[in-house]
Amino acid sequence: MESTGFYNLFEKSPLPMWVFDIQTLLFLDVNIAAVENYGYSKSEFLTMSISDIRPADEIDAVKNIVEHNAKTGKFFKNIFRHVKKNGDLIFVEIESNLIEFKGRQARIVLAQDISEKLIAEQQLALSEQRFKALVQEGSELIAIVDIDLNYKYVSPTSRRILGIDPHIFIGQNALQYIHKDDVQTVVAEAGGLNLKPQVKFSPFRFRHGNGEWRWIETCATNLTEDLSVQGIVCNSSDITDRIESQKQIMENVERYNIVARATRDVIWDYDLRNQKITWNRGISGILKYKSIGHITDAHWWENNIHPEDRGQVVASINRHIMRGAKLWTEEYRFLCGDGEYRYMMDRGYVGFDQTGKPYRMIGAMQDITQNKMQMKAIEEQNKKLKEIAWLQSHAVRAPLTKIMSLAELLQYSCKDEETKVLLKYLSESSAELDEVIANISKNAG
Predict the structure, then answer these.
(1) CATH-assigned architecture of domain 255-367
(2) What's the gap between Cα 427 and its chain centre?
(3) Which residue in 232, 251, 248 sits closest to 240, CA to CA?
(4) Which long-range contacts (CB under 8 A, 24 or more apart) does 203-206 make?
């Protein structure tokens, strides 16, 4: 082979090539590309067999293949794993044929490293598998429509979400499934795709296969210029439960507002599972939070409790829930939207599900700040009255007692009858004054 022009093709081939003895499996010659790709020098290769570049668990299989090919003498092609000198494992596509080399039966081999190709194919297959799972098993309905909103493709999830097989939609216009009261809005918003690549539609009603109307939320992306799509891709979700839940919340809020007009209380509904609290209009009227909305999380309520009261209040409500108590009452200071703390009397009722787990609390907050101020004023007044009583019983009675004693002493020693009469009147008046002071002290205490 070295004496022919064929050897130059062998030696300078960009792909690894070698010749091996089919009896001993020893390398008889290798080209430059084999040396560069596998990391062995040519002299090293010529001391090795083809088994040395195969994983240990495939050596027996290699021998069997060589023996079989030796008998048939046919062209052979297959994919194998090879090991480089540095230990790297690669996938190669082998093509070999039977030749005579220097008087010995041998095979000439062409090896192409296809590791990156296989990895790319595996990644593509995985990506396609994921896409298939997303389209067929996902929670969203994926569809492609043309610029007139006619269906070109509908994912299999339509059967589960809308109760309609996907092939039924093909060629149909999407508007014929949309509620007549929502069609105008959908058409107007679809026109926005002429100005921007993506539009999120307002929720609209879509006819289910069973005749019911389902609320749908859709995001559309204009890919009409993409040759692989040539349409508008629509990702849609059934949000009926969410719409109904919001509607129920608003109905509850309105009922709470009606109750609040009669009671002047802040009505609240605490979802213990999701840690959300729904408030009536008292949150803006009484608590003075004008832009907070009707729904807050539980942390918002906790954070607005006065720092000195917070620990006790939170512990109290948790303690009642853990004990299974249905009624809860607590008094605390709450920070209002105007920056002022107001005293609140809060009462709640705990609801438990069939398993005995708490899931909801409904209650009312009453502003008792004015009552607190009145009680404080009364306490201050009582304090002053007690101080007055003390002065009367101590600062006034002491000199009065002296006067009474002196009057009695003078009356006893006085000889003048007129003076005795005056002293008697003085003693009686002093006694009456002492009785009045005693009664005042008694009532003030």
Answers:
(1) 2-Layer Sandwich (3.30)
(2) 88
(3) 248
(4) 203/239, 203/243, 204/178, 204/179, 205/178, 205/179, 205/181, 206/162, 206/177, 206/178, 206/179
Phi, psi of 99 (to 5 degrees): -140, 170
Q: Which CATH number fits domain 138-238: 3.40.720.10, 3.30.450.20, 3.90.1300.10, 3.30.830.10?
A: 3.30.450.20
Distance CA 37, CA 29 (A): 15
Please say whether the beta carbons of 344 and 366 come within 8 A.
yes
In one letter, which amino acid is 379? Answer: E
Residues 366-402: tens digit of each pLDDT: 999 988 888 777 777 767 666 666 665 565 666 666 6
CATH topology of domain 5-118: Beta-Lactamase (3.30.450)
Residue 134 DSSP class: H
Two tokens at 62? 């290699």
Q: What is the pLDDT of residue 8?
A: 79
Q: What confidence tens digit (pLDDT) does each residue in 243-266 have?
A: 777 676 566 656 655 555 556 789
Per DSSP, the residues of 61-81 read: HHHHHHHHHHHH---EEEEEE
Cα 287 to Cα 266, 281, 346: the distances in Å are 8, 9, 13
Stated as kind and residue range, the H or E segment containing 93 is strand 89-101
Cβ–Cβ < 8 Å for 168, 189? no
Are 330 and 316 in contact by the 8 Å Cβ rule? The answer is: yes
The phi, psi pair for 114, rounded to 5°, reads: -115, 20
Rg (CA), the chain: 49
pLDDT number for residue 222? 94
Q: What is the pLDDT of residues 43-82, one digit of tens each?
A: 999 999 999 999 988 888 888 888 888 777 778 899 999 9
What lies within 8 Å, CB to CB, of 287 at 6+ separation is: 266, 334, 336, 337, 365
Structural tokens at position 69: 């090919």
- Tokens standing for 241? 């439960």
pLDDT tens for each residue of 317-337: 999 988 989 899 999 999 999
Tell me if 138-238 shares its fold with 255-367: yes
For residue 3, CA distances in Å to 13, 46, 102 come to 17, 20, 11
pLDDT range class, residue 415, cuts 50, 70, 90: low
Strands 17-21 vs 27-30: parallel, antiparallel or unpaired: antiparallel
Delimit the domains of the chain by residue range.
Answer: 5-118, 138-238, 255-367, 380-444
- End-to-end CA, the chain: 130
